[in-house]
Amino acid sequence: MRLSSLFLCLALFVLVSCSQVNLASHVAKKIPDGKSKGDFKVGSPYKVMGHWYQPQEDYNYVETGIASWYGPGFHGKKTANGETFNMNELTAAHKTLQLPSLVRVTNLENGRSVIVRVNDRGPFKRGRIIDMSKRGAELLGFKGKGVAKVRVQVLTEESKKIAELAKRGESTHGYEVAMNEKASQRRPTPASVQPAAGRGQPREIYQDASLQSKPVEQAALPPPDIPGHTSPEGIFYPDQIVEQAPVANTNIYVQAGAFADRGNAQKLAQKLASFGQAQVYEANVNGQQLFRVRIPTANVQSADAILGRMANAGNGDAIIVVE
Q1: Helix (H, G, I), strand (E, B) or coil at 60
Q2: Are the C-beta atoms of residues 278 and 289 closer than 8 Å to each other?
Q3: Partners of 185 in the beta sheet?
Q4: pLDDT tens, 271-308?
Q5: Residue 252 DSSP symbol
Q6: Residue 270, φ and ψ in degrees, nearest 5
Q7: How many CB atoms within 10 Å of residue 134?
Q8: pTM of the predicted structure, to 2 decimals
Q9: Could you read off the pLDDT of 94-135 as tens digits, one per residue?
Q10: Strand residues in 209-287 grouped as ranges (E)
Q11: CA separation for the pair 122, 235 (Å, rounded)
């Protein structure tokens, strides 16, 4: 569910373990007044559908969960930071991250990854952690399915850079097609096989013909070691490469709570017997011992069903977790 319009009133995509889509660099430029350049925004706490969200600057954010996508119904409308949403660009919506941010989204089901620029708020459907543009969902391979298990990771230094640009009134449009350190370090050969970094397993590298190169202004050409070509008119077009590696198995849970006391966790697990086989899982988070109450599920659909039932029963803080 998307609520970009609501957000205007409420204050208001390199090293990948599975795979990555490497895209070469674009350079920010001043946008004349009246254009959709967007602003830097964090925003105040806000409430949607009975749930409070606390936006904040977080340049170390990493989370696994469920992604969805949005497109036609919002194409051409304003995003939460004042840009015009284009469903064919690599952007995304997040409930709390600073706008804009660059995040790497990895589809844990097929190993594909893209870098997208977060410029909107959402999704507000329970159990979703990011809303991809239609194009992002296509490249990650879940547009037809509608949802996917993903890992979302902020690109720390790159996000700080575009935040500063936005604060100075400069456009960050196109940086989602940039900031790929691996792409700038080598010129891969289409259909070649190279070892996956640190894993000792081959990774296929191939050209994705469905990706359309975008030009970079001649006045600010990217470094010469970035893969690409220059047109007769002097416009640089970056090559766009897809890499795909083996996928690790993941599990999906509905997590009802986390406790420092095992006894409290066990009590909650017993109360949740009607929802499924609730179990207590031990975890160490930042040096703190926690006991998480989780119900394992088979897929996103069953997780959604359990999450909905829990919410109706008064446990509105339950979440979907992918590990």
Answers
A1: coil
A2: no
A3: none
A4: 999 999 999 999 998 899 999 999 999 999 999 999 99
A5: E
A6: -65, -40
A7: 17
A8: 0.72
A9: 999 999 999 999 999 999 888 899 999 999 999 999 999 998
A10: 228-230, 236-238, 240-244, 252-259, 279-285
A11: 36
Is 2.40.40.10 the CATH number for 4-177?
A: yes
Q: How far apart are CA 246 and CA 18, in angstroms?
A: 6
Residue 132, helix vs strand vs coil:
strand
Q: What whole-number distance in Å separates Cα of residue 247 and Cα of residue 112?
A: 9
- Map residue 83 onto helix, strand or coil: coil
- Give CA–CA dist 172/132, Å, rounded: 18
d(CA 161, CA 150): 25
Which CATH code, of 3.40.50.261, 3.40.350.10, 3.30.470.10, 3.30.70.1070, is assigned to 252-322?
3.30.70.1070
Least Cα distance to 122 among 93, 149, 99 occurs for 93
Residue 227 DSSP symbol: S
In degrees, to the nearest 5, what angle opens at C-alpha 177 toward C-alphas 171 and 183? 135
The pairing of beta strand 130-133 with beta strand 62-70: parallel
For 251-274, b/e burial (b = at least 16 CB within 10 A) is: ebbbbbbbbeeeeebbebbeebee
Start-to-end CA distance of the chain, whole Å, equals: 24
Sign of CA dihedral 29, 32, 37, 43: positive
Candidates 91, 115, 88; CA nearest to 241 is: 115
Place of tokens 């039932």: 309
CB 179 within 8 A of CB 158: yes
Domain assignments of the chain as residue spans, ordered by start? 4-177, 252-322
Is residue 94 a contact partner of residue 117, using CB atoms and an 8 Å limit? no
